[in-house]
Amino acid sequence: MSGRQPCPVLSVHPTRALVDEGFAVMVEMLPPGFAVTLRALIHSEDNDFWEAYGHYVSDDTGCVKAAEHSSLGGSYDGVEPMGLLWSMKPVPGSRTGLRLRKKDVRTPLNVQILLYKGHMSDGFQDGNVLASVAVERWYLAPGVRRICTAENGLNGTLFLPPGPGPFPAVLDLWGGGGGLVEYRSALLASHGYASLSLEYMNPRIIGGTTQFVGNDYFEAAFNMLKDHPLVCAERIAVMGLSFGASVALGLTVNSPVVEPRCLVCVSASHIGPVKGSLSDVFAEISKNSNNTRYDEENRVIWRDLLLPIPDDPSKKTDVGRLKCPLLLIVGEDDQNWPASESAEDIKQMMERAGNSHLLTVLSYPDTGHLIEPPYSPHTRSSNFMSQQRAKVIVLWGGHTVPHSKAQEDAWEKTLAFLQEHLYGTSLGAAS
Questions:
Q1: Within 13 Å and on the Cβ side, how many CA atoms surround 88?
Q2: Could you provide one GO biological process annotation from this protein's UniProt record (predicted)?
Q3: Residue 115 buriedness (CB in 10 A; 0-12 / 13-18 / 19+)
């Protein structure tokens, strides 16, 4: 910029917000018709760098507004107000198989928004940075309480919204990757729900032998929520992703204890009902291990492990016995779990049983398995530790733009579904 030209002003509003809130990125005081690159950069907790960038040209007033102006190239094209987040990828030269996930929800996801002169696609280290803004993206809203719990042998984290309560609640079950994943529960608590994120995939020593947990473990978790003084005992949902969704379906049908007000199942299958120990389910799935496929990049495709959909009713959760509303969220390009085929069979089973009025299906074309909260970067494949403790790269599926749009829509409708069935009101009518 010349000495007579004012320095450009880069602003992001808000600079501190929840991860599912949008932001507005604007540049002012540029010469008209001036080419710039907007770039977002994250240094992850795993010590990796993630980036996204868009190419813009200032308008006649010397402004660039990401919410109104088109990106002419970069990691996304067109008018995409949040493209700087959902199009993020590891920087060139990074380790393979990365996935961006927040581990410590007590700290924000720190995003640096940078402005460069010209249209750049590489060499950012040596680029001419004209301005930068630090942005904080939070899963925890102010006042949300995080409580580690080990009652009744449980391993989980309870998140409580601010205020006196009591609150509607969600039992939050993640998938087959295992571990204690907190960020969805933290975000649910930030929207007014007590949420228990439960770890359940790691085997335990039970009666002197190594076993996976059974229904009694999940029943203890549900009862812990039900008995908590800050939880509305009759307003509890169960939410699951992938294998966690299968657990949620099986529990609701087969357990006399787990009686949720509603179910949210993301990338779900009803094949292999949970009636005893998870070990039984893994044993059943392993019978089809010869159905494992690999793509041209040697990434694992596991969706065929549960196909074809069995006719034998003992091999499936009898969803015809469901008595609560069920929201199924399906990615039609799911390469890890037969979510589309399962959703169709679930629909048919519920129609035959006369309870299909309880079913809502959200099915998204070109969307993969890992349907995350809004603006999370799309992960088509990533590293995964199998039950045999073998590290593989799993193909999850999906294409970045439609997958990202699906995440926004699915989360909005998930919150509306929970609002309707746990609070008894629509989002628009909520006070």
A1: 26
A2: fatty acid metabolic process
A3: buried
Euclidean distance between CA atoms 34 and 36, whole angstroms:
6
φ/ψ (deg, to 5) at 12: -130, 130
Tell me the C-alpha distance between 8 and 6, whole Å.
6
Told to judge if 340 belongs to the known catalytic residues of this protein, a careful annotator would answer no
Is residue 2 one of the residues assigned to a domain? no
Alpha helices in 240-326 (DSSP H): 243-254, 278-286
Residues in the chain: 431
Catalytic residue of the set 334, 342, 345, 376: 334
* Among 55, 69, 228, 369, the one annotated catalytic: 369
From the list 377, 395, 382, the residue with the least C-alpha distance to 292 is 395
Q: Quick check: pTM over 0.90? A: yes
18, 140 Cβ separation under 8 angstroms: no
Could you list the residue range(s) of the whole structural domain that residue 26 is in? 9-138
Report H helices in 182-242.
Answer: 183-190, 215-227
Q: Tell me if residue 251 falls in helix, strand or coil.
A: helix
How many Cα neighbours within 13 Å face the side chain of 165?
22
Domains contained in the chain, number: 2
Residue 74 belongs to a domain: yes
Active site residue 122: no
Q: Which of 163, 213, 218 is nearest to 196 (CA)?
A: 218
Q: Which of 44, 242, 342, 382 is catalytic?
A: 242
Clarify whether 270 is annotated catalytic: no
* pLDDT mean by block of 10 residues, the chain; 431 residues: 76 98 97 97 97 98 97 98 98 95 96 97 90 98 95 91 95 88 97 96 70 86 96 97 92 93 96 63 72 92 91 91 97 97 98 97 98 97 79 96 98 98 68 31
- In which element (H, E) is residue 412 found? helix 400-418
3-state secondary structure 312-360: CHHHECCHHHCCCCEEEEEECCCCCCCHHHHHHHHHHHHHHHCCHHHEE
CB 280 within 8 A of CB 246: no
Amino acid type, 108: P
